[in-house]
Amino acid sequence: MLSKNTHNEIVGSEIERSNDRIDLTGEVFTPMELCAQMVSEIPESVLKDENSTFLDPAAGSGNFLLALQTELLKYHELSHINDCMLYGIELMEDNHTEMCDRLGVSVDHAHFVCADALEYDYGFGQPVGLENELGKIGTPELYTPPTVDKKTQAAPLF
User: Which of 64, 112, 119, 130 is the most exposed place for a label (fewest CB within 10 A)?
Assistant: First the structure.
């Protein structure tokens, strides 16, 4: 039976990705050539913008992020790219470690997390939502519309 895992052969990964593991997890890796093609579709103005950010919520071993990092290096310093522009989430710890190695960051880098993307808060170590400006937001009070006396406050028709 042929192996379903061609990723290891292409990128030289040493992670054990058996057919059983692939069947269990649905693990599929986007080929580097396709990642490069997708990145080439991003407008140059977006790539040049130092405030642009990119997220891969199913990062695997980092193929898409690595293609982005490579292209962004034409316009930005590596430290700025990794610390300000790229974000990745990967469920499987071994893939997360491999992704971090390939991107040149530590496994505890705040932008590259090992988590379930369906449950992660997407804070990447920072407060989420309006917490940045308002602190913790309590439960809102119920809105009660004002009562209007229809006879005395109604606008005339003519």
Answer: 119
